[in-house]
Amino acid sequence: MATGAAVAAAAPHVATASGSGMVEEQQAAGVGILLQISMLVLSFVLGHILRRRKFYYLPEASGSLLIGMIVGGLANISNTQKSTRRWFNFREDFFLLFLLPPIIFQSGFNLAPKPFFSNFGAIITFAILGTFIASIVTGILVYLGGLVYIVYRLPLVECMMFGALVSATDPVTVLSIFQELGIDTNLYALVFGESVLNDAVAISLYRAMASMRTHPSRQNFFLVILRFLENFVGSMSSGIGVGLISALLFKYAALDVDNLHNLESCLFVLFPYFSYMLAEGIGLSGIVSILFTGIVMKRYTFSNLSEDSQRFTARLFHLLSSLAEAFVFIYMGFDIAMERQSWSHIGFIFFSVIFILLARAANVFSCAYILNLARPPHCQIPKQYQQALWYSGLRGAMAFALALQSVHDLPDGHGETIFTATTSIVVLTVLLIGGSTGTMLEALQVVGDSNRYQHLYEENSDGNDNGYIGPNYDEGASTSSKFRSKLRDLRRSTSSFALLDKNYLTPIFTSRNGYGNDDDVGSPSEELTMSRGPGAVEGHE
Amino acid sequence: MATGAAVAAAAPHVATASGSGMVEEQQAAGVGILLQISMLVLSFVLGHILRRRKFYYLPEASGSLLIGMIVGGLANISNTQKSTRRWFNFREDFFLLFLLPPIIFQSGFNLAPKPFFSNFGAIITFAILGTFIASIVTGILVYLGGLVYIVYRLPLVECMMFGALVSATDPVTVLSIFQELGIDTNLYALVFGESVLNDAVAISLYRAMASMRTHPSRQNFFLVILRFLENFVGSMSSGIGVGLISALLFKYAALDVDNLHNLESCLFVLFPYFSYMLAEGIGLSGIVSILFTGIVMKRYTFSNLSEDSQRFTARLFHLLSSLAEAFVFIYMGFDIAMERQSWSHIGFIFFSVIFILLARAANVFSCAYILNLARPPHCQIPKQYQQALWYSGLRGAMAFALALQSVHDLPDGHGETIFTATTSIVVLTVLLIGGSTGTMLEALQVVGDSNRYQHLYEENSDGNDNGYIGPNYDEGASTSSKFRSKLRDLRRSTSSFALLDKNYLTPIFTSRNGYGNDDDVGSPSEELTMSRGPGAVEGHE
């Protein structure tokens, strides 16, 4: 609730409207919101129908984008009132503060921790190192293209900004198809983890480059990297901290009795947002923070809730993120149709599409090479997975939001060119990659039963409880180089986390033993508490 | 989700901030929202503790108001950054578009329809006629006070605007105490219905007066009343219409199968908002519309949902309205502490407090007199109920929002005086009336077992299924005047609604017979449908 409030508070100009002006203002708002709700309903219904017919060429996100673009185009033609139109301008701050948090939190909340943490090293490598590589490769290619006059010429730092913003991949569309098709959890974890974390990397890089541009004295590359790592570790810690505090609160406040369910869920819902805003407020990355809060809250806090509230909050977060996801694409589509585009540099658009494909290849294949050096033979990332990872790099709302930002940050013409190029990339990748992911995954044979790698991957983990991390690392160490063994030492440290979790974290932060809702939810004592009933004033209906 | 988006879209000035400006902007937003969330958490925890200790002198709303005022005062002293502060300016349009709808919808959704509809005539009388009376009495008293120099002198039309805005009573605080104490449902329905509907009346009257002020040609009093009635009936019909459409959609779309729960609740959640925005968009009253949508959706649509979604949506609406309620008072308190008040007219404030008490007495006692003429002897509204109704007229966010609006609508000085007077009335009534309602209700003996009237009221209804409406009206008709019998004819028409509902509406708009979740939810056939699981997507119905 605080959410919209706050954003609204940032719009003081409406308050200065006169009496009858206010009535018109409100009517325009009504029409604008009505249109948005109708598009949301349309997009849900369309998505439902297409899914039911197993038509995978138009995923929900693509559908929402198209709906937004079509309605936006119609509104453009029909010369809609300016006051209504204003409700559709894509606003970066609104996107970052209110649409992104529920999506990212739900990603963390809904995450299967095992494949995520067992691939944590790989995910971090792809997300941080890989995004660095992709940004720089894109930036340099665009700069070189400018030098040889095949594209519009931009200064190097602006090329780097473009490289950074266009390296943010979108988690929504591809992952929903992955889920639908039932893909290997390891590949899923890789794609998911990379696309979530690289948003944070891209935004930090973009901001670092932007501040470099305005303050040339800060042009120390290593300082940028250092500051970025500081930011990342800080955000992660603050997110984990908030998550653990919420776990303790719910463990000791004893809110899981019948008539306090509403209070319980109110508090539970406020924590993720608290984590996001805390991080943003102290200048860290809200995205990273809320992602880890989501992971921690699901693992520890969630099992301290009453059974009823568990069901409720899980559905609530799912609902919020579905609404936010659909809305992001509608909102973006509408804005694309409304915004003035600058089509004078078709060459720039054409070549930047090629450049980002190359840059993503440089990211995925080089990182995978390094990772495979560190991994024991049976845990290698197969070529097919690398190709799937390369293919699933579609660009979405984050790239769009940063490109819109660049229009304000850069001198006349430069920002507009970058914006139009990014818009084109977003529309192309969402429609083409989004529509063909299903076909591609089937061609790569990583779907469902046809996935021979999943089999291989899992059999080799020797029934070890932590997936394929654990004692069976050392076997290959004798033949590896010094570099390899160092990398493996690094990896091994993650396996001790499972022990730490089992012996310390779970007993400290949860009121039940074990892993939450599988274990003793619905036990007799619980049932007794739940059914005390009528005396409770606020009991749920 | 669309909500905040839209409001945010109304704030284009942030988008023009420069690159590093944007980072600071976002940091300020983070701090602002963080503060808001912390206050929300504090208010929930405080409210919980006080309720647990059965301390009724500081209801949750008063607590939230105080928290807002204290934190706002501290922020004022500590000279907080302007960019953070801006997140706390109370914005009327944000309040009307995003905070009010969930509160009003939940009121309608959570309403016991029987006492509401059996008292519908009385509620409408208090809300429409009574609020007219109260507005005009307040306006005239203030004007006369100005003529004899005991208060600041305002033109008549501005006095009427003040009368209208200050006649909006707040449903939140008093009703939560009523619920807590377990008061007679008829008294509850009267207070509830009046306070919800009179918001709509007050806002319409205020706007009518404001447009009269700027366009003196429209000063036709009967035209104003006619336009108001048009507006009211139109809004009610549009709200009922949207509700019935949603019922049909959920009856025939067959979304109540296991794997479509998310889609089901997404659509269900969007409807109330759709109704509100539809009404606002076509220039009607969103509040009235969403109230009736809530009533209709609970009665018909709700029983077409799957059992799981029923539980979920009921909790969701409760959660949203709790958050909105707490936030409204915090937000208002903070703004009161931050806004510049004009204390130069203490006399105006002092006398306006007295005037509103008189005006409310004129409203309640005269309307009750008329109603008692129309009601048969055993259904009279007892004196104690009238006193309780008079007492429970505390002023809240609606009056505050309109007063803030008047600062922009009226010439220098006038608006500020009205605003400060209204602020004082809000704070006084929320703290004093809110804190003493429990004591007052006990003194009037209308609480729980000590309520002798409830007994009387119900015994006389002769076990008739529709409460105290129905065949037993005619007995007193022979002795009554012609006017009385006409009024009773009017009342009798409501009793036929129960028949209409039972024979036509329920079978047409719900997929189950009977009244929804009491009847056959969880029946064997239902259980079967629910557990068919994944294969059930297409087979249902």
N-end to C-end Cα span of chain A = 23 Å
- Can you count the beta strands of chain A? 0
Indicate the overall shape of chain A: globular
Structural category of chain A is: mainly alpha
Helices and strands, with pairings:
The structure is a homodimer of 541-residue chains.
Chain A: H1 2-9, H2 19-52, H3 60-77, H4 82-85, H5 92-109, H6 113-118, H7 120-147, H8 156-165, H9 172-181, H10 185-214, H11 221-252, H12 261-281, H13 286-299, H14 307-338, H15 346-374, H16 383-391, H17 397-409, H18 414-443, H19 452-459, H20 482-509, H21 524-530
Walk me through the structure.
Two copies of one chain form a homodimer. With 541 residues, the first copy, chain A, is mainly α. Chain A is built from 21 helices and no strands. In chain A, helix 7 packs antiparallel against helix 8 and helix 7 crosses helix 10. The longest helix of chain A is centred in the N-terminal third of the chain and has 34 residues, at 19-52. The model of chain A is unreliable at 1-19, 449-480 and 513-541 (pLDDT under 50).
